[in-house]
């Protein structure tokens, strides 16, 4: 499912521009502008990414998109800025923190809808550690990247927390819910 595979050099470039974007945001309060011509074809293609920031092993910000809508390198620059300064769960990153930030980038493959007959059937189809999931029901929507399996390795817990994140109760279920899976290519 994940169609993007970046070279080590391209991964390093992505991490560098993410860090530059955060530094630019601290100095100028805006998103770093990038010249696409300076990047490889892989980084110029349409891509969907999440940028996750950690500080001393703790989550410090995470913002991304589920659908490719702009060149990958621009997507990463935008989400690095937003993870540092616009994640509503955290105060904006300050200049004393920038050197302590660990940056992880996840590039998302195209989501695929999972067909299931009920919650038990859905749970049997999940691939822990591989699947990122999107839950949609009415105006409720949430996602977990595959890395969340590290904190929630049991499929029941994973789904319960995904429901809570969507604003539903952990015991809620409706067979009309739409569940999609995606894979990621992640690096830090």
Note the topology.
Layout: H1 8-28, H2 41-44, E1 46-55, E2 58-64, E3 70-71, H3 72-85, E4 101-108, E5 112-113, H4 119-125, E6 132-137, E7 140-144, H5 155-165, E8 178-182, E9 184-187
Structural features, described:
The protein is an alpha+beta fold. It has two domains: 8-108, Hypothetical protein ph0010, domain 1 (Glycoprotein, Type 4 Pilin, 2-Layer Sandwich); 112-187, Dna Ligase, domain 1. It is 30% helix and 26% strand. It is built from five helices and nine strands, in the order ααβββαββαββαββ. It has helices at residues 8-28, 41-44, 72-85, 119-125, 155-165; strands at 46-55, 58-64, 70-71, 101-108, 112-113, 132-137, 140-144, 178-182, 184-187. The strands form two sheets. Strands 1, 2, 3, 4 and 9 form a five-stranded antiparallel sheet that branches. Strands 5-8-6-7 form a four-stranded antiparallel sheet, with helices on one face. Helix 1 crosses helix 3 (72-85).
The Rg value, from CA coordinates, equals: 17 Å
Largest sheet: 5 strands, antiparallel
Ends: how far apart? Answer: 21 Å
Number of domains: 2
Number of helices: 5
Mean pLDDT: 94
Q: Mind telling me the CATH class of the largest domain?
A: Alpha Beta
The portion of residues forming beta strands comes to: 25-35%
CATH architecture of the largest domain: 2-Layer Sandwich
Order of helix and strand elements from N to C terminus = HHEEEHEEHEEHEE
**Secondary structure category:** alpha+beta
| CATH homology superfamily of the largest domain | Hypothetical protein ph0010, domain 1
Number of strands: 9
């Amino acid at each position: 499912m994940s169609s993007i595979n970046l070279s080590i050099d391209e991964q390093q470039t992505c991490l560098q521009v993410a860090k530059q974007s955060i530094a630019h945001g601290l100095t100028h309060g805006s998103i770093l502008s990038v010249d696409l011509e300076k990047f490889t074809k892989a980084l110029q293609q349409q891509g969907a990414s999440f940028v996750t920031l950690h500080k001393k092993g703790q989550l410090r910000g995470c913002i991304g998109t589920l659908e490719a809508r702009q060149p990958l390198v621009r997507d990463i620059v935008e989400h690095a800025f937003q993870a540092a300064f616009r994640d509503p769960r955290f105060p904006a990153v300050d200049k004393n923190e920038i050197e302590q930030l660990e940056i992880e980038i996840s590039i998302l493959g195209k989501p695929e809808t999972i067909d299931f007959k009920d919650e038990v059937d859905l749970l049997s189809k999940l691939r822990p550690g591989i699947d990122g999931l999107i839950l949609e029901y009415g105006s409720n929507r949430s996602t977990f990247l595959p890395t969340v399996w590290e904190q929630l390795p049991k499929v029941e817990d994973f789904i319960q927390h995904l429901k809570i994140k969507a604003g539903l109760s952990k015991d809620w279920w409706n067979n009309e819910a739409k569940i999609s899976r995606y894979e990621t290519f992640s690096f830090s």
